[in-house]
TrEMBL record:
Signal sequence region: none
Name of the featured protein: Tryptophan--tRNA ligase
Residues that coordinate or bind ATP: 14-16, 22-23, 150-152, 189, 198-202
Pfam annotation, one family: tRNA-synt_1b
Motif window: 'KMSKS' region: 198-202
Entry EC number(s): 6.1.1.2
Family classification: Belongs to the class-I aminoacyl-tRNA synthetase family.
Subcellular location(s) per record: Cytoplasm
Keywords carried by this UniProt record: Aminoacyl-tRNA synthetase, ATP-binding, Cytoplasm, Ligase, Nucleotide-binding, Protein biosynthesis
Major location category of this protein: cytoplasm
InterPro entries: aa-tRNA-synth_I_CS, aa-tRNA-synth_Ic, Rossmann-like_a/b/a_fold, Trp-tRNA-ligase, Trp-tRNA-ligase_bac-type, Trp-tRNA_synthetase
Length: 336
């Protein structure tokens, strides 16, 4: 049967901690949903994680746990590809060539670099600075059409397009220009304790995030404590009511209801009822994922087999691109 060629997706997540509700709503939930329409490659970005100091044994453990969690979310490793970044060395090979085609000034403007340098002033390393080049390599090496990410990654996606476009101009058509896929409602889930800041798995305040592995009691407790305001009305207004608006975005994601419908549903009710409802739909959504996670993580051999197979399949695609790029830029390649 002649089928039209499906578009390709690539995305990544760092094994820097247990994924939060922000990672779930902004990214990995969509990764699972997009599998029915696209050919997908999903990657655990362990090399990117090294830009911040990691405890080696923990990084190793988290990498495997993250793989199990992605499988639990519904990533299908037979019809799509799940792999670990460092298992495909071609990403680093392409990153070097791209770094030589990226300007210092362009990298200096990246807000994540500025944020993370401010957060870790004792370790402003070269990897943190060239982070977006490696990310561009991750995407361009597979000629991905679409990249599902949260809002915080859109600047990195834009620089990937700039790099690809420049390379194509200098060396001839080589890379596909990738598009972002940023969800409408949950592109930026905010911290529960400081709702003007992004919810982040590396936050030191455990009440600021809900983890994908949190049980129902923890979820209820964290939402009950979530910072709101004194106005007492469930109304969507990001600027003046960031806490309530954030909870509404979460509720909307899991119920499919619009902001108007949510406002109507909780008209005349207090924040207590609303927070409990948000906690319930969140716990209901995460419960099946958590059950699967426990089951899959118990079978280490299966997880490792999936990653081995994923790396081999990704490497075949990636090596082809590197070969082509090396030829285009004039690196001598000998017949094999
Ligand atoms: P770290 O705290 O280590 O910086 P992180 O929580 O930001 O990590 P990443 O691994 O960098 O997580 O991101 C994985 C994906 O999740 C990316 O697509 C990112 O845009 C998305 N994401 C992260 N945090 C949020 C959030 N609060 N809301 C929506 N999407 C998010
Ligand atoms: N920088 C991303 C993780 C990441 C990524 C990618 C996302 C690494 N390589 C390629 C999309 C495409 C982050 O979430 N911080």
């Amino acid at each position: 049967m002649a089928e039209e060629k499906r578009k390709r997706i690539l995305s990544g997540i760092q094994p820097t901690g247990t994924p939060t509700l922000g990672n779930y709503i902004g990214a990995v939930r969509n990764w699972a949903l997009l599998q029915s329409e696209y050919d997908c490659l999903y990657m655990i970005a362990d090399l990117h994680a090294l830009t911040v100091r990691q405890v080696p044994a923990e990084l190793r453990r988290r990498t495997r746990e993250l793989a199990a969690l992605l499988l639990a979310v519904g990533i299908d490793p037979k019809n799509h590809v799940l792999f670990v970044q460092s298992h495909v060395p071609a990403h680093c090979e392409l990153a070097w060539v791209l770094a030589c085609n990226t300007q210092f000034g362009e990298l200096s403007r990246m807000t994540q670099f500025k944020d993370k340098s401010a957060k870790h002033p004792d370790n402003v390393n070269g990897g943190l600075f060239t982070y977006p080049v490696l990310m561009a390599a991750d995407i361009l090496i597979y000629n991905a059409d679409l990249v599902p990410v949260g809002q915080d990654q859109t600047q990195h996606l834009e620089i990937a397009r700039v790099i690809a476009n420049r390379f194509n101009g200098v060396y001839g058509e080589t890379f596909t220009l990738p598009e972002g896929y940023v969800p409408a409602a949950g592109a930026k889930i905010m911290s529960l304790s400081e709702p003007t800041k992004k919810m982040s798995k590396s936050d030191t305040n455990a009440n600021s995030f809900v983890l994908m592995t949190d049980d129902r009691d923890a979820i209820v407790r964290k939402f009950k404590r979530a910072v709101t305001d004194s106005d007492g009305q469930v109304r969507f207004d990001r600027e003046n009511k960031p806490g309530v608006s954030n909870l509404m975005a979460i509720y909307s994601t899991f119920t499919g209801r619009t902001m108007e419908e949510i406002e109507a549903e909780f008209a005349g009710k207090g924040y207590g009822d609303f927070k409990l409802a948000v906690a319930e739909v969140t716990a209901d959504a995460l419960a099946p994922v958590q059950a699967e996670y426990g089951r899959i993580l118990a079978d280490k051999a299966y997880v490792d087999e999936v990653l081995k197979d994923g790396a081999a399949r990704a490497a075949r695609l990636a090596n082809r691109t590197v070969s082509k790029v090396y030829r285009k830029v004039g690196l001598l390649q000998l017949d094999r």
